[in-house]
Amino acid sequence: MTTVETQLPPLRRNRDFLLLWLGAGGTLLGTRVTITVYPMLALWATGSATMAGLVGAAALLPQLLVQLPAGVLVDRVDRRRLMILADVGCVLSTLSVAVAVFLGHTWIAHLVVVAFVQGALAICYDLAERSAVRHVVPKEQLSAALGQNEARSRAAGTLGQPLGSSLFAFLHWTPFVFTAFAHLVSLVSMLLIRKDFQDERSSAKRDFKAEVVEGFRWIWAQNLLRTAMILISVSNIVFAGLGITVIFLIKQSGGTGLLVGVITAIGGVGGMLGALTATRWLKWLTMRALLVGGFAVWALTVVPVAFTSDPFVLGGAFAAFGYVGGVFNVAGGIYLVSVAPDAMMGRAVSVMTLLGSGLAFLGALLTGPLLDGPGVLPTVLGMAAVMGLLSLVALGTPIVRAARYTVMNAPRPS
């Protein structure tokens, strides 16, 4: 630890960081609650894994369609104002589902639209929040702040999934009321923050398309980051399918929605631990070992899901999924924030997320019919094979083989 770092007050005394951290935590928690419940509500209402997959895909589709325009928006407008408007939109959209379900109506078309809208607004909020962090903490504390943010995200998943399932088991409309309240908490936090979330902006008129292309070119020029995100994009398709699979397995075995939440929450605990310990791995391992080993662990832990609906086995598998994912997310976040200029930050994060998660909706969309048709065993073993192939591709890719260092252990210039 440097002398400068020891003289800085701890992050827990940074008022604006705490408000941003807590506000974003409320939004993340509410989002995790409803993302968990959307496919459950569709499956319980129709009995069809295909319908559950369709609704789940609608929630993920904004990762493909909204990322790039949202990134430009984040770099153009006042970021805090954008986050406030996103919270307001999420309150209204989720309350519309609560009212409909309370009145005894579950329309798949309605769920598809609201899931997409909420997903789109969540992307705008998330990109703005990631871009804002560097403006509320000193540069020397940026890595620690990003680690805490990733742990917060994983904790939101850990709490949100069982909470959403529990509320759903109690009354099907209550998860959506809770989410609306969580967004209101975030809204208040944003209104209390004093600092600006961006540098002074140029008043010159800018071309939307040119800004999108500029952001894409910048990320594409980061060879290792680009390669890693393409590989991760395939893995995220698998994980979206695994989310539908665990709901299907538990329902078929007579389990409750609460059990689904507990299993996926264990994955959140794993992710939180991965985020909190990520800096150690980034100091110990080469980037090559991190990528190849991470995909290999994922491949091995997918296999048991094909053969059992035992909640302990499923929980252990999801814990491993989450742990590796937590490490990966911190590694990518630290690297991006350390190299991206502020005027490019929103677009850089949006392009990176697009590469990593843009096709995730395919996992939910395709897995439902596969579960209804061929069944669990061939579907999940196929997922494991894809993960294994990703590890081999990473091992055989020159840019990954040459990655001897991470951001945390790279030699400092003399």
Automatic annotation (TrEMBL):
Q: Which Pfam families match?
A: MFS_1 (PF07690)
Where is it found, in Gene Ontology cellular component terms? plasma membrane
What molecular functions are annotated in GO for this chain?
transmembrane transporter activity
The subcellular location is: Cell inner membrane
Keywords in alphabetical order, please.
Cell membrane, Membrane, Transmembrane, Transmembrane helix, Transport
Membrane-crossing residues?
A: 17-35, 170-193, 227-250, 256-277, 289-307, 313-337, 349-371, 377-400
Ranges of residues in domain Major facilitator superfamily (MFS) profile = 16-400
InterPro entries given in the database record = MFS, MFS_dom, MFS_trans_sf
- At the top level, the lineage of the source is Bacteria
> Where mainly found?
membrane
Q: Which SUPFAM superfamilies match?
A: MFS general substrate transporter
Return the protein name: Multidrug efflux pump Tap
User: What is the species listed in this Swiss-Prot or TrEMBL entry?
Assistant: Saccharothrix violaceirubra
